[in-house]
Amino acid sequence: MRMYDIIKKKRDGEELTKEEINFFIKGYTDNKIPDYQVASLLMAIYFNKMNKRETLNLTKAMINSGETVDLSQISGTKVDKHSTGGVGDKTTIALAPMVAACGVPFVKMSGRGLGHTGGTLDKLESIKDFKVELSREEFVRISNEINIALCSQTANITPADKKLYSLRDVTATVENISLIASSIMSKKLAIGSDAIILDVKVGSGAFMKNLDNAISLAEEMVEIGTGFGRETIALVTNMDEPLGYAIGNGLEIKEAVETLQGKGPKDFYELCLFLGSKLLVLAKKTSNEKEGREMLVNTIKTGKAYKKLLELVKYQYGDTSYIEDTELLPKAKYVLKVESDKEGYIKSMNAEEIGKCALILGAGRDTKESEIDLSAGIVLNKKVDDKVKKGDVLAYIHGNNRGKVEEVKEKLKNIIDVGNKNKENKKLVYGEITNKKTKLF
Fold first, then answer.
1. Where are the domains of the chain?
2. pLDDT surpasses 80 at 114
3. Which CATH number fits domain 3-63: 3.40.50.720, 2.60.40.420, 1.20.970.10, 3.30.70.20?
4. Residue 365 has pLDDT above 60, yes or no
5. Known active-site residue 368
6. Angle at 341 between CA 336 and CA 347, to 5 degrees
7. Taking every annotated instance into account, which residue ranges of this chain make up the domain Pyrimidine nucleoside phosphorylase C-terminal (predicted)?
8. DSSP string of 218-268?
9. Which of 80, 89, 122, 161 is catalytic?
10. Which CATH architecture has domain 330-419?
11. How far apart are CA 124 and CA 139, in angstroms?
């Protein structure tokens, strides 16, 4: 078999066989096929696309390029959640304790965040001594004892995806549904959860900017998960504005804690209930979402979800006083207000641009080597459709570099658009995708 023939076949719009896909993935992972040939194939895939069978075979080949994580030693139906990324997306930190408090094992291995703010692991490291690097034995033991564990994935999960993504990034071949779907799902499926819910973001702060593309991506990923024998569903959710109010690592931990205490932002809490109720059905803890929602609400009212977060922190060697008193979380030297200079309604606030502002403050990573400022970020005081008077505080900027804080203040004045009231109410969830149907709300 020759790489030349595989490139030519895809260039001419033909379907690649399972054996051809395995050949190119193994050869590239083992450094036997050069970058220039794989780049050529990626461009052919970009223009001629892959069908569902090819995409599933590509995902399987990437999974088989490295280690897989067997979770069979963990009791019960294990659930996981993946978000395609957004601004202020601290969902796992509140959702996981809520689901675990209902008696369903929520076990998640994550990578580091690269972008506007840190990933789930970076946020958790705002808690003093919280340990995200766990041995396989620790991960299994903690999951069995408290139904929840959140840790970093092993370095050798899907090495083919790491190499391919780096090459796609510099060859303008990132924006292809099959390549995106196989990249995301190979990492999820390498870890042996029984059921997966996918939170596919759409809007200004998401990778997918329009609804049609977001639905296509969701459908492709659900098809892959189902084809791999996993219970998989997806929700397409709004990322035209940040989720909740807080953007930044320590600030988002504080907001997640407040949510578990019944004091969180309405949109963030509602999304946790939406996702969580579906996970409880997938885990067969309940037969319907209404009852699942009531179970989750009960974990907030009784304090069980909050106690579950405390357990998680304790079992992963963190200082629980940082949860009991969130004022202990990392604090920025400067906190500046952004005030409205006119009256009206919040028409829009471009989530991507707000994310870039958080990055300027140090809340995220430009490169994998960048050091995150766990105290930096932005806390919004208003959301889209809120009424605003002149002089009202729109947001608070948290940072340790006065010049950058002032720079962000000027930017936010232009990003947060105050004007006439929007004619249509905003949506939190646009639709649900299962292997049977796509339902728009």
1. 3-63, 79-324+430-440, 330-419
2. no
3. 1.20.970.10
4. yes
5. no
6. 100
7. 345-419
8. HHHHHHHHHHTT-EEEEEEEE-SS-SSSEESHHHHHHHHHHHHTT-S-HHH
9. 161
10. Alpha-Beta Complex (3.90)
11. 16
Tell me if 262 sits within 8 A of 272, measured CB to CB.
no
Query: What size, in residues, is the chain?
Result: 441
- 82 has catalytic annotation: yes
Catalytic option among 10, 60, 168, 278: 168
Task: Name the catalytic one among 82, 116, 365, 398.
Answer: 82
Which residue among the candidates 183, 216, 277, 375 is catalytic per the annotation? 183
Phi, psi of 24 (to 5 degrees): -70, -35
Q: What are phi and psi of 231, to 5 degrees?
A: -65, 115
pLDDT band at 43 (very low <50, low <70, confident <90, very high): very high
Domain 3-63 matches domain 330-419 at the CATH topology level: no
**pTM to 2 decimals?**
0.92
Amino acid sitting at position 98: M
Catalytic residue check, 183: yes
Residue type at 99?
V
Across 41-45, 82-86, 103-107, 230-234, least confident range: 82-86
Select which of 10, 116, 163, 187 is catalytic: 187
Token pair, residue 208, equals 């997918």
CB distance 212 to 327 below 8 Å: no
Q: Which CATH architecture has domain 79-324+430-440?
A: 3-Layer(aba) Sandwich (3.40)
- Evaluate whether 79 touches 193 at the Cβ level (below 8 Å): yes
Q: Which of 89, 57, 68, 46 is nearest to 256 (CA)?
A: 89
